[in-house]
Amino acid sequence: MLLTHYWGTEVSIRTIGLANVILKNIGYSILGEDLCLKVKSYKLGEELDPFGMELWKDGREFEVNSKIRKYDDCDLSTLLSKGKKQNESLIYEGLFQEGWFLKENEERIRNMFNLPNVSIRDPNDMIVFVRLGDVAHIAPPYSYYQDAIETIQRDLSPKSKSYSNVSSMNNSYIATDSPNHPIVKRLIKKYCLKLVKYNDVDTILFAREFDNIILTAGTYNWLAAFLSKAKNIIYPEHAHFWHGDIYGIFNWTKIKWRSKAPLRYLIINRYFQQYDDFIHFYRYLKRIIRGVIISPAIKIKGFLRKIGNFKF
Asked: Are residues 298 and 185 in the same domain?
């Protein structure tokens, strides 16, 4: 038996991360099938229904005892090589965020999804994924997105025309977790991008309609690109990985940005932990200040408005 590990059984799929859950389900299915072990429990829910995933359900079952061994991604290659020689239950705690593993099993993974056929949009249309949120401080700068968009425009436009022509992007979109971030607003304004307003699942399915996809980083961005049939997929060089390198092994185009923001790249690349700690401490202070000062002020203002003795 293969025992799964999803950071606690009561945690919702959206809390863990949609793509993280899908990737772990995929990994458990492949591992269970290759070792001929029954997977104890996948993490499924109605959020995953639109993907129509077919996962490994058969396999052998062995006794589970206190001496059961735990494995993670460092053991994945060795574990897979055992095949049916694995004669005991195990707990796998890895994330399966290994490029070689995903590439080696690319067709098997694609066949796990029962997705409807989609019509590809105009070849000039594109969708730009801008992942910011809690990782905005390590995301690539605005210049990366600009270079990525104009690279696609240049490749698609006739040589006699200017690749900076924005008129051909009237049906291009931007998908982001931070619609009010300055980078997002600037991209929307300059390139006439439309903001995607679908939920996480529908956004991934929507991205399958595009031939041109620009990514930031993360498993969610990776999954959107992987499930598409896009001819042009662009991703940024990573100053620091918060996940495994699941981009570089695929036949996608990498755009470097370090020369455009050398100090930023240097800090993220060499001093990530100190930088990350500082940013999280700064965000913590902001929350404290907001709670201590701003919230009471808003409550007082609301109270004064109610009694009608003051005007604001």
From this structure: no
The pLDDT tens digits of the residues spanning 123-135 come to 999 999 999 988 8
User: DSSP character for 253?
Assistant: E
Kindly state the tokens that stand for 64: 């589970």
In a domain, residue 117? The reply is: no
- The answer on 81 and 133 residing in a single domain is no
194 DSSP β-pair partners: 173
Q: What range defines the domain where residue 145 resides? A: 127-269
CA distance 307 to 276: 46
Crossing angle between the packed helical segments 200-207 and 18-35, to the nearest 10 degrees: 70
Residue 92 and residue 71: Cα distance in Å, rounded?
5
CATH number of the domain where residue 162 is located: 3.40.50
3 state DSSP class of 60: strand
d(C-alpha 78, C-alpha 195), whole Å: 44
Burial 108-124 (b: 16+ CB within 10 A, else e): ebeebeeeeeeeebeeb
pTM of the model: 0.85
Residue 278: inside a domain, yes or no? yes
